[in-house]
Amino acid sequence: MLKRSDEKKPLRPATMMVHGGTTRSGFGETSEAMFLTQGFVYDTAEAAEARFKGEEPGFIYSRYANPTTRMFEERMMALEGAEDARGTASGMAAVASAIQCQVKAGDHVVAARALFGSCRYVVETVMARCGVDCTLIDGRDLDQWQKAVRPNTRVFFMETPTNPTLEVIDIAAVAEIAHAAGATLVVDNVFATPIHQKPLALGADVVVYSATKHIDGQGRCLGGIVLSSKDWIDENLHDFYRHTGPALSPFNAWTLLKGLETLPLRVAHQTAAAATVADRLAERPEVSRVLYPHREDHPDHAIAKRQMAAGSTLVAFDIAGGKEAAFRFLNALEIILISNNLGDAKSLVTHPATTTHKNLTPEARAELGIDDGLVRLSLGLEDVEDLWDDIEGALAAV
Ligand SMILES: *Cc1c(COP(=O)(O)O)cnc(C)c1O
C-alpha cells in the first residue's frame, strides 16, 4: 500500500494508476506480483474456520478473490471513486453479472437501444428467458425513459457514447428518473473511458467496463469489472459473483494492472489524435458526416461538453457513396488495420453495417444512424501525421 497519511490531498489519476491498490509480498517486489494460485492454505483448522466465517481477513479461493485481482480492483476503485468492485473474465461477464445479480422473474429492465451487440442480446434474449421483460428506447429522449417505467422496473441500462455512432446520453438526468422509479442505473463506460467520464459522480449506481479495450489497450487479453458502492456489491453482486464464477484470471488482472499504469498517457494521446482527425475529416468532400462528441456539430454536443472531459478516442464518419465507397476506403488503408476491437495501441477501423451490427434489421440500423457508408475509427498510439497520411491516401482511393 502507499505510505501516505489520510489527511493529504487525494492523488491525481496518473499517480493512482501507477501506485493505487498495490500490496507487496514479503519480497518487496517493485512490480505487482502475479499470484497464480487457485487456493490458499491455513495454519490451523481454527484459522480456516475463522476465515470461512469472515472473522479473519484473508483469501479463500480465487473464484471469490485473489491478491492480484484485488490489486486491479482497488486501482480501478481509486480511479472511479467507487467503494468496491469485482473483476470479471470479460466485459460481457461484467455486464451480464451486473444486470442478472439484481433481477428475478417478473422484473423489468429499461435499456437504451444503442448498445454493444452482446449487451443487447443479454437484455433482450437472456433476460426474457429468465422471465425478465426489457423495453428498448432511444436513450437520448428522456421522456422515453420516463414512459417506459413500470411498477416492476428494477434496472436502467445504457452506454454513452454509444457504439458506433457516438450518441451521448445524459447520465445525470437518466439517474434521476431511475431513482424516482426505484430502479438502479447501470452505465457501460467503455467508450468514454474512466479518464474522461465518471458515471458514479453523475448519479449512476453501477459502472461496468470491458477492460479488454482501453484498460489493457494493447490487445493482449480479455477482462472486465463491475464497480459500485459497498452496499450494492454486498447486497447484489457478492454472492452471485462467488457462486456463478465470472472471476478474472490473476494473469489477466496483472496484465490489466500494467495497462492501468499507462492508461492516462495513452488515452490523452488517442483523444488528441481523434479530435485532430475528426476536424480534418470534416473538411473533406469524400466525407458526408463526422460524429465526434466534442465537435460543435455533434447532435449531443452540449451534454457531451457537460459530462465528458474530452470527446473520446474514436471518431465515426460517413463516406459518401455507401458501402462500396466505404469498402474502398478500408481496403486502401495501409497503417490503420481492419478490426472490431477499440482502444488499442494500433489504430483500428470497422464497417459496422457489415460486421458488428450486421445482425440488426435494416430498420434497426437506420434507427441507430448506421448507414452503409458509416466507418468507425479507433485511434491508436501511432504518430497522428502518419495516420492522417494513411487516411488521405485512402480517401483518394474512394
Ligand atoms: C467490447 C465491449 C463490451 C464487451 O466486452 P468484452 O471484453 O469483449 O466481453 C461491452 N460493452 C462495450 C461498449 C464494448 O465495447
Automatic annotation (TrEMBL):
Hydrolase keyword on record: no
Highest taxon of source: Bacteria
Gene Ontology terms for molecular function: carbon-sulfur lyase activity; pyridoxal phosphate binding; transferase activity, transferring alkyl or aryl (other than methyl) groups
Cofactor requirement: pyridoxal 5'-phosphate
GO-annotated cellular components: cytoplasm
Biased composition, class Basic and acidic residues, residue ranges: 1-10
Record PTM N6-(pyridoxal phosphate)lysine, positions in chain: 213
GO biological process, one term: 'de novo' L-methionine biosynthetic process
Enzyme nomenclature, EC number: 2.5.1.-
Pathway the protein acts in: Amino-acid biosynthesis; L-methionine biosynthesis via de novo pathway; L-homocysteine from O-succinyl-L-homoserine: step 1/1
Pfam families in the cross-refs: Cys_Met_Meta_PP (PF01053)
Key words, A-Z: Amino-acid biosynthesis, Methionine biosynthesis, Pyridoxal phosphate, Transferase
Reaction catalysis annotation: O-succinyl-L-homoserine + hydrogen sulfide = L-homocysteine + succinate
HAMAP family referenced in this protein's UniProt entry, alphabetically: MetZ
Assembly, per entry: Homotetramer.
Described function: Catalyzes the formation of L-homocysteine from O-succinyl-L-homoserine (OSHS) and hydrogen sulfide.
PANTHER family: CYSTATHIONINE GAMMA-LYASE, TRANS-SULFURATION ENZYME FAMILY MEMBER
Family named by the database record: Belongs to the trans-sulfuration enzymes family. MetZ subfamily.
Identification of the protein by name: O-succinylhomoserine sulfhydrylase
